[in-house]
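debug: dumping io for the single-chain case to check the tokenizer round-trip. Nothing else runs in this session.
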Amino acid sequence: MKKSLFLVYVMLAGLLTVAGAGCRNGLSLTNTTTNNPPPVTGKGVVNGSVRDIETGAGIANATISAGGQTATTNANGVYRLVAPIGKMTLSVSAANYAATTQRATIATAMITKADWHLTKAYGTQSIPAAGMQYTILAWNDLGMHCDQDDYSYFAILPPANNLYAQVFARSSEDGATKNITVTYEFPKKKNPSSQTNFWQYAAKFGWNGTPNVGLAGNGPFGVMKPTGDGITYAAAAIPVSPYDDDGTWDPFGTAVITVKDAKGNTLQTANVVAPVSTELGCSICHGTANPQLDILAKHDKLNGGTLVADQQAGTPHACAECHSDNALKMAGKPGVESLSLAMHNSHKDKMQKSPLKPDCYNCHPGPNTQCLRGIMARAGKSCVDCHGDLVKMTTALQKGRRPWLDEPKCSDCHGSLYAENANTLYRNSVLNNTAGEGMNGRIFCEACHNSTHAEHVTRNAADAEITMKFQGDNYWIWACQVCHEQGKNGSPIHGAGRGANGVSD
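debug: decoded output
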């Protein structure tokens, strides 16, 4: 059995970076105070740089605009803009790059720093899907699932990865498909029980102990269930290991999605990443000899428990038995902190021991896995830009934030045009403000932009297999022809006369 690297997934509850559904380019935004007053009454200063997201080189002659005011970058890509105070939408444009926007609050006593990382202009290639009858858009909903190498001491999370797929008949006006079967299979991960001892202890935690069968009854291959909207199929809690059957560590393993007709003929296939990692850094605080045992011992000392004795007697416990966990829908015990609060609160003053930045990687996977790999991360955004540091996370949880259920919002940076649906997380939101009535309320944001922490364009080539196959690039889905036979590429997808929640403007 591999040496456990345990760590606390629960910080993932605070690391679910919700990439903007309209994140056309990377951007960075921070506000800092200054002793220098603005040059004009009623106006403030915005400064920063504009860079190529691939090379990091400054982009000269880029134009930044806000409130009717404009500025141009110098030869190094640096600019200074004087703009009206208040909440503003800043925009940037540069030759051969895609234009984009970001939200900012400009104040008289502040200098607003707004950095930009631009992607190259797109849309000139022919669309591969134009020669196909069916398109598959598929994704994992979280961007990374945390797992353990060793379950003999305790259980944080079981192996459980969710996959979704939307299948489009390109000739159909609403994309709906009929009489098809959608399956998934992990060619290199068919026997996860050979890589983990989870099933040896699953029954002790109250879970299914049948080898290679997950909590929802799914295995490493099977049939995806239709959700009822005519295009969406799902498979929940698939037991995926970060190790291939031959022992190779691959936290970004792919599943093959296959669509067949009623006669068994293959209509389309697509490869989708199901990310999972056991790169958890408990040894940073709990030593390398036996970090799991040290965790139990310290827990017993602080709380007067018997976790060490129970484990040695052959009865390990799941953390969620006492600490509520919304990810597992387990209520825990009354008066006991949620798992997320307990972990953030107890570790908030200990991360200075580690040189890792962001320090979230001490617990969330990790410096080798780099689960935060999407376009915002590539543009220099960190976990704390959306979620705050451990102290702020702890404070928010103590004030009532619900782990896994209350997350940062796309609209905070990207504006209402790219907002999630009302009272809905990004991973569960659907497109609701396009001119094509047949699309509204059906197309998941993640179908086009990929999952949290892995928004297109990501650092990981495997994340782009679907967009490369059907669109011919590694960008978010921007080409109408990917899903529509009569689609007109270049037409606006978001907006088009409708507000973010589908209400006519």
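debug: round-trip ok. The domain at 26-118 is CATH 2.60.40.1120 (Immunoglobulin-like).
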